[in-house]
Inverse folding.
């Protein structure tokens, strides 16, 4: 059987995209790798969040799932940095105090989520050894530390 995927470009490449195609290409690469037992290269992992969302549907290998979570954590760290810059700008431009405080809270929360993803991502590198029924009853669950209270600056 021969499968041929084709996609035509409908929008210009933006935001430092490598131009490897959109979601159709991601599905085609995953299908090709699955049919022939080939590894999916990590360097082709998309960095845009919408493309990462598509990658979650095609990530089948444990290493791919871990890589997706780690990339989401990295994007959250980037988002936290952007938020912090706007927080500093709000303080510099003398916006109402609550604007800078809300941005500081959002910054801290984004960092906490990224750290939580860093902690749980390795769990997806290995298949669980316990049956799902045991996991559903809580015997195979690992508690995750709750996030700290947000700091106000």
């Amino acid at each position: 059987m021969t499968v041929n995927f084709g996609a035509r470009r409908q929008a210009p490449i933006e935001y430092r995209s490598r131009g490897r195609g959109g979601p159709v290409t991601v599905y085609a690469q995953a299908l090709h790798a699955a049919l022939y037992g080939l590894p999916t290269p990590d360097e082709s992992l998309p960095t845009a969040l919408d493309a990462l969302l598509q990658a979650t549907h095609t990530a089948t290998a444990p290493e791919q799932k871990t890589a997706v979570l780690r990339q989401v954590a990295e994007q959250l760290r980037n988002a936290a940095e952007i938020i912090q810059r706007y927080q500093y700008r709000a303080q510099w431009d003398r916006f109402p105090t609550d604007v800078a405080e809300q941005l500081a809270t959002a910054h801290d929360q984004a960092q906490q989520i990224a750290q939580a993803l860093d902690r749980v991502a390795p769990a997806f590198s290995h298949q669980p050894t316990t049956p799902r029924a045991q996991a559903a009853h809580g015997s195979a669950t690992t508690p995750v530390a709750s996030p700290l209270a947000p700091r106000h600056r």
Residues 62-92 form the longest helix (31 residues). The two ends are 62 Å apart (CA to CA). Residues 23-130 form one domain.
